[in-house]
Fold this protein.
Amino acid sequence: MLYILPEAVWEDYNVPKGQAKLLRHVKEAILYRYPTTNVVVDTPVVRVLYKDFHIEVLPVFRLEDGFLYPDTRSDGSWKTTKPEAELRAMREFDAEKNNNLRRLCKMGRAWKNKHGQAMGGLLLDTLAHNFLKSNTTYDTRSYSSYDEMCRDFFKYMADQPKQVRYAALGSNQWVKVRKSFQRKAKLAYDLSVEAIAAAGQANEGAKWRKIFGTPFPLTAKVQKSARAGTFRDTEEFIEDLFPVDIKYSISLECTVSQDGFREHLLRFMIGQGMLLRPRKSLNFYIDSCDVPGNYELYWKVLNRGDEAERLDIIRGQIVKDTGHREKNETTNFRGDHVVEIFVVQNGVVVAKDRIHVPITPVATAAAA
C-alpha cells in the first residue's frame, strides 16, 4: 500500500538519515491508531502483521510520473518507483491477451512459492508479459489452454539467458534478478509435460500439485482413494500454517555416512548415480541462507512409497527447529522421500528448500 505524504513535509525528511526517521514515524502513527497490532520496519516498508496476512505500507512523495520512496541503506537515499505506469501497462496488455496475463502471473506466484524460488512479483510479472508478447498463441485462448500456456511459459523462462536485471513492463525501470530461476523453471516444464500427459487420469491433479502446491484441486477419485488407505495420513502443509511469500533463498545440504565408509554429499551421490543403501546416517544442514534479520526454521520429513504406507510411518509433520539448524535421519526403508526446510519471518514463509532422498529397494530418509 502506498501512503502518499503531503508535499509540505518533504523538507522534514529530506535530511541526513531522514529516510529512517520517516519509516519510524509511519510505524509510530500506525501503532497510535492500532496499538495492539504487530508493526515492524522492514526497509523500505512498514509491515503490519496479522495472523493470516500482512500489509506492506510504503511511504512515498509524489513525482510527476511516479513516486520517491525511502531507502535507509548506507547513509540513506531516495529511490523512484512508477507503479501507476506498470499497472496501466498490465491492464492494457491483459485486455489484449484475453485476460491471460494476470492469471498467468498468479499461477507463476503459486509456482515460485511452491518451489522456493526467490523472485520478486514485479520480475515475475515482467517475464509473464515478455512471454505473452513474444507470441500470439494464447491471444484468444482461455482456461482450456492454461495447461499448455503454463508449460510454454516455464519453457520460456528456462531458456532465458542469464542476466542480472530486466526492464519492467510499463515503467522500464530495472528489476533485479535475486536468484537465477532457469533450473527450477526447467523442472516445472518437465513436470507440466508429465501432467499434460496424465490428462483425464486419476493422478492428473496430483501431478499439477507438484508444480502449484495444495491449492490445486485433486479429483474426487483420488481423494476417495486416499481416505480408503490403511495408513494414517499425517502429512501437514506449510501453507495451512503460515502465509507463503518467497522472497529469499535457502539451500539444504546433506552428508551421508556409515561406519567404515567414506562420507559423501547426497546431491553428489545422486548426481553420480550412486545408490543410497540402508543403515546410512543422514545429516541435513543449511548450506546457505540469505534471509536478513531474525527468523524461525521449520522442518518436514515425509516418507513416501508402499513400505512407508504399509508400516504406517509416512510422517510429514512440520516441526520447529530446536536451535541446532540441522536434522539427523537414517535410511530405514525404500521409497522416494523428501526433507524440507522453511524460513518463517514475521509470520510469513519467506524461503524454503527441499531434498529428495531416493532409497533403493532395501531402504528411506527417516527414522521410525
